[in-house]
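Quick question, first post here. What does this chain look like in 3D?
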Amino acid sequence: MKPAKFLKRTVNYLKNFKELRTTVIKVGLPKEKATGKAYGEGGLSVIEVGAIHEYGTEHIPRRSWLRVPLSREYKDIDKMRTKMMQRIQDGSLTVDKAAILFGLQLEKICKNEISSEGNGTWPKSDRAVKQDGTTLYDTGTLRKSISSAVVSDQTK
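> Answer (accepted):
Ran it through. Tokens below.
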């Protein structure tokens, strides 16, 4: 490799590395996108409903649609991250575009968790039993609200 090409590649690598250090991908119900959405007039916010099901309460069993699926899919997520990093390094993908695509894939994992009712492990909700429906999917508000946001954290 010629010195000029090596230098250009090294400078690009350093630029991308600095950008990656400050890039944060928020997945789930990031306040940048989920704030203000509510269930019914004067009802709970979508963030409150998401937290209730993620952690459970005294009367509502835990139905983790965020932590459990992302932990379970860790190996596939890590492979995806590695491929994205390779594409950033070879110049076929920008850091910002890679972060957006990565966030979309993580959203898909969380949304699929709701659609599959925790891969069939969640207890049926009373509403789902009565209406022969899918738990956490009566109006689709929570599932539709799952999103990702790419932000820069300059404190890193």
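The beta strands are 23-28, 147-152.
The chain has one domain: 25-151.
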